[in-house]
TrEMBL record:
UniProt cross-references to Pfam families, sorted A to Z: FAD_binding_3 (PF01494)
Full protein name: 3-(3-hydroxy-phenyl)propionate hydroxylase
UniProt entry tagged with the keyword Flavoprotein: yes
InterPro entries the record matches: FAD-bd, FAD/NAD-bd_sf, RIFMO-like
Keywords: FAD, Flavoprotein
GO molecular function, one term: FAD binding
Length: 570
């Protein structure tokens, strides 16, 4: 039976703290997450999966309405896989790799975001935000160490002790239908959206640019012959001098974005009398459709100066915001969640210093700057700010029909890709020569493999802990595997070992503690430049942090200490 996630309502339930208001020794939870949107839910699930108790509070009692964020990237799907709900999203979502750009009624060019085979997930799926929240919520409800508290609005924030010390904590004042109570946590993750009450309560601001343009979003339910692609029109005949974007969603719902201009009345433009003629101009006079959801938005590119403030860490829209072109908002927020969760777990378990959380801020601030830069450029191209820039844009579009160089300049929204954290202090610089994209700081790419004779995928083998990946050829595999196991178990923390066998003829004994996979198509070795003997150290968020052509105990120990911000690294 299909669930209508937009109509679900969740009951408020009194909590233990409300019965212990006079208890001065109230125990602090390890982590409190504020906000039950996609980022807050993903953060809470990720932390709980790593064995850390977490409380999630939200001031509402329902999921989002309307499609809102709909484009979820391959990287986000890889993260959702690790969180235990990726397959549900792919099954429900509309998968797509191809986009088309039009000028007036002529096709300018077509692009493919995943032109090569051998990937488990598509470049993107389209899936309404309420489905994403619903699937994440159902996963969260399966976890015994994750409490969800609805109708719990944070109205006060107080930091206690010296930030970074073991005694530091945060006390939240939470307002509920039964009155207010105090909720204490060692760390608090603020994932409470672009208007962020947490940010306001702490007297913090976001800085950036608000663009003087407005767009209409119309979710239209209809039977249509459009292919499952992203279509973007510049100056189409059905909406002259403006831009239009079309995406297909599940349930025969189509997202249409109409550029309106800065002078448009946002209240008037949401009325059916204004929306229906615009949709009919696109679809034709005889088209049959229903309006499911309508919104008008003005977009900004901005971020907080710092994402960490003592023991409060900001993630998702509360920390940064971009225009919707390029699907960089929700995808970036999900990547915030995966970056932060493992670091909190390591610090709370005493395996890393509190300084590791500073790298959450620096890495994700870098990623936010990259997203804002790309989003700003997209917006400037889509909505020219002067006659000269309009002439330049139209000239680029006309050239792009026949000249590949101009297609690099065409910008209908550079679509979300994960930031490569090249300058992260957690990386160990290469001392050997490598080819390809899997540099320290890059997120791992997938490849088809065989495990015990069955088809599988490389990323599924990595899990969510520090992992060593060792590439082996056809000789000395058992000895190399045993040596790797001995090395990885002797470091600051034990590591998982994945052995990638690059020879189809090689036989491998079942080494205790190692996951052995066969690179039957050679794509893993090609994508990681995995010559026999090559070793990769992978973070719990599946980012490369070190690699070497030869496995060495001191190299692994030093790289792991660096990745944990442990003193004594070289």
């Amino acid at each position: 039976m299909s669930i209508n996630y937009q109509t679900l309502s969740f009951d408020y339930k009194p909590c233990r703290e409300q019965a212990e208001q006079g208890d001065a020794e109230q125990v602090a939870y390890p982590v409190i997450v504020v906000g039950a949107g996609p980022v807050g839910l993903a953060t809470a699930i990720d932390i709980a999966q790593q064995g850390v108790p977490v409380v999630l509070v939200d001031d509402d009692c329902s999921l989002s309405t309307g499609s809102r964020a709909i484009c979820f990237s391959k990287r986000s799907l890889d993260i959702f896989d690790r969180l235990g709900c990726g397959q549900r999203m792919v099954d429900k979502g509309i998968s797509w790799n191809v986009g088309k750009v039009f000028l007036k009624d002529e096709l300018v060019y077509t692009f493919n975001l995943q032109p090569e085979a051998g990937h488990n997930r598509p470049a993107f799926i389209n899936l309404q935000q309420y489905y994403v929240e619903g699937f994440l919520l159902e996963r969260a409800q399966e976890m015994p160490n994750l409490q969800i508290r609805w109708k719990s609005k944070v109205v006060g924030v107080q930091q206690n002790g010296t930030a970074g010390s073991a005694q530091a904590s945060v006390t939240l004042t939470v307002d509920t239908p039964n009155g207010q109570y105090l909720l204490r946590g060692r760390y608090v993750v603020a994932a409470d959206g672009s208007r962020s009450p947490m940010r306001n309560l702490m007297g913090l601001d976001s800085h950036g640019v608000t663009f003087k343009d407005r767009f209409l979003i119309a979710d239209v339910k209809m039977e249509a012959e459009f292919p499952t692609e992203r279509w973007f029109w510049f100056d189409p005949p059905f909406h002259p001098n403006q831009s239009v974007l079309l995406h297909r969603q599940p349930d025969n719902v189509w997202r249409i974005d109409f550029q309106l201009g800065w002078d448009a009345d946002p209240v008037l433009e949401k009325t059916p009398e204004r929306v229906i003629p615009r949709v009919r101009a696109l679809l034709g006079p005889d088209a049959k459709f229903e309006l499911e959801w309508v919104s008008v938005y003005t977009f900004s590119c901005l971020r907080m100066d710092r994402f960490r403030h003592g023991n409060v860490l900001f993630a998702g829209d509360s920390a940064h915001g971009v225009s919707p072109f390029g699907a960089r908002g929700a995808n970036s927020g999900v990547q915030d969640a995966e970056n932060l969760a493992w670091k909190l777990a390591m610090v709370l378990e005493g395996k890393a210093s509190d300084a590791l959380l500073d790298t959450y801020a620096s890495e994700r601030e870098f990623a936010a700057d990259e997203n804002i830069r790309n989003s700003t450029r997209s917006t400037d191209f889509i909505t020219p700010k002067s006659p000269v820039s309009r002439v330049f844009r139209d000239a680029v579009l006309k050239l792009a029909q026949h000249h590949p160089f101009a297609r690099q300049l065409t910008n209908s929204g550079r679509l979300s890709v994960p930031a490569v954290l090249r300058d992260s202090p957690l990386n160990t610089a290469d001392s050997d020569s490598f080819e390809g994209l899997m540099v320290p700081g890059a997120s791992c790419v997938d490849a088809p493999v065989h495990v015990a004779g069955e088809s599988a995928w490389l990323l599924q083998q990595l899990g969510q802990q520090f992992t060593g990946v060792l590439f082996c050829g056809s000789e000395g595999i058992d000895q190399m595997t045993q040596a790797a196991l001995d090395t990885l178990q002797s470091g600051p923390i034990p590591l998982k070992l994945v052995v990638v066998v690059t020879s189809n003829d090689a036989q491998v004994a079942a080494a205790s503690g190692a996951k052995v996979v066969h690179d039957v198509d050679g794509l893993a070795a090609a994508r990681y430049d995995g010559k026999p003997g090559t070793f990769y150290l992978i973070r719990p968020d599946q980012h490369v942090c070190a690699r070497s052509r030869q496995l060495d105990a001191s190299f692994v120990a030093g790289a792991l200490k660096r990745a944990l911000c442990v003193e004594g690294t070289a």
